[in-house]
Amino acid sequence: MNFIKNRSELERDYLHRIALDVIEYGLESADPYNAVLSSISVRDNTIYIKNLEIKIFGRIHVVGFGKASKRMTNALYDVLSERIVGGIVISPEDPSIVGPVEVVKGDHPIPGNNTLRSSQKLLEYLQNNVGENDVVFILISGGGSALFEVPEHNITLDDVGKLTKELMRRGADIFELNAVRKRFSRVKGGKLLNYVKAKTTVSIIVSDVVGDRLDTIASGPTAPDETTYKDVYNILTRRRLWDEIPDRMRSIIEAGLRGELLDTPKPGDPIFSRVHNVVVASNAIALESMARKIEGYGFKPLILTSMIEGEAREIGKVLASIIKSIILYSKPIQKPAALLAGGETVVTVKGDGIGGRNQELCLSLAASIRGLETVAVCIGTDGIDGVSPAAGAVVDGSTVDEGYEAGLDPARYLENNDSYGYFSKIGRAIITGYTGTNVNDVFLALIK
After folding, report:
1. CB atoms within 10 A of CB 277
2. Domain locations in the chain?
3. What number of other Cβ atoms are within 10 A of residue 347's Cβ?
4. Do residues 89 and 63 lie in contact, with contact meaning Cβ atoms separated by under 8 Å?
5. What's the CA gap between 396 and 199, in Å, rounded?
6. Is there a contact between 326 and 447 (Cβ–Cβ < 8 Å)?
């Protein structure tokens, strides 16, 4: 599958070609259709999903939500076809039909009327069509928090949206955001299972969360939630929002603190005995497939981690130091080597340039590997890097000198957060367009 649209521009030599081959292979392994298709098979009345065996006694239903939900539905239908009797799947794409499954439209990144209408339709389907002996597949992927939501306690989507935006503005991370949103939702934090009567439910998950935390992906609709109303109170107090939120939201949290409201289901709750959560695509899975691919080219792979977080330019320096150690001392791995890593960095924006976390990481790394014989690539697997049209960039030991020859000072571009401005001018920005998946960012460096 050809993901990189400007690949011919980026292939400077055989090392660049190999790096781009491996990156595209990683994207292919993270493709939702491929991930589902390779993870599920059926024989007689048994469905095999990785290490699971699911016996079919009744009908099969499919519901889902997320940016990858339609392609996941296509794959599941190609495996199970006429065994599926119906379902509702929420996608950011236009409405369509996959066999007997209706694909409806939701709103992303901010939930709106489409999300509310489609979410209610999904819940009605579960309540009106699913029996105890049936099997329900729930397809979950990134973007599900916005695409699937039904507020409770007379809270509106507008209330939740405004609070979410303000929490983000004040530096709240995804775990804090989810803890708060779960308190005002009928479906987040394991609550979706309240609407499923089937004794057998299988959640098939494409993870866009560092570490693949089930309680965080799409706000954990089928996973136990360990956070509490006390946590939410502490978050809103720490972010100096407790006195600013609407009275109706504050009243709900206060009632929860007094134990007057039922909280989200916790680990050990019997409701989770009838659900299997299976991750079929993730950053770690993509890195493992890339490692297997690179061995075929004669390189020794080393996966550092799939959980990189932190300031992009600083992570770039750290990765560059490991590349130098391999080049000079063959440590922590012998040459020829392939260094792999994944996760999701951040950029503290101080300039007014155009860029993204992957390109900023690459620009910082390029300055540190100047003159060295290595090629490195870092991309966002969804094809979108920050506010730029690029997915990431490819760099090597001559990237900085190429910039100087073109009259570009990489330090100034880095200071102005204008990494795309730099890489686009020297033909090193990777253009994929939206890839149809999202398993965070992947990094690859090849050392001869």
Report:
1. 19
2. 7-30+284-447, 35-150+185-227+264-281
3. 18
4. yes
5. 54
6. yes
Which CATH fold would you assign to the domain 7-30+284-447?
Answer: glycerate kinase, domain 1 (3.40.1480)
Q: Class of 35-150+185-227+264-281 per CATH?
A: alpha beta
**pTM (2 d.p.):** 0.91
- Residue pair 239/171 in contact (Cβ under 8 Å)? The answer is yes
Cβ atoms < 10 Å from Cβ of 169: 9
The dihedral over CA atoms of 128, 129, 130, 135, expressed in degrees to the nearest 10, equals: -150
Give me 26's structure tokens.
Answer: 């990683």
Q: For residue 215, which phi and psi values (nearest 5 degrees)? A: -75, -5
pLDDT tens over the chain, length 448 residues: 789 999 999 999 999 999 999 999 999 999 999 999 999 999 999 999 998 999 999 999 999 999 999 999 999 999 999 999 999 999 999 999 999 999 999 998 888 999 999 999 999 999 999 999 999 999 999 999 999 999 999 999 999 989 988 998 888 888 899 999 999 999 999 999 999 999 999 999 999 999 999 999 999 999 999 999 999 999 999 999 999 999 999 999 999 999 999 999 999 999 999 999 999 999 999 999 999 999 999 999 999 999 999 999 999 999 999 999 999 999 999 999 999 999 999 999 999 999 999 999 999 999 999 999 999 999 999 999 999 999 999 999 999 999 999 999 999 999 999 999 999 999 999 999 989 889 999 999 999 9
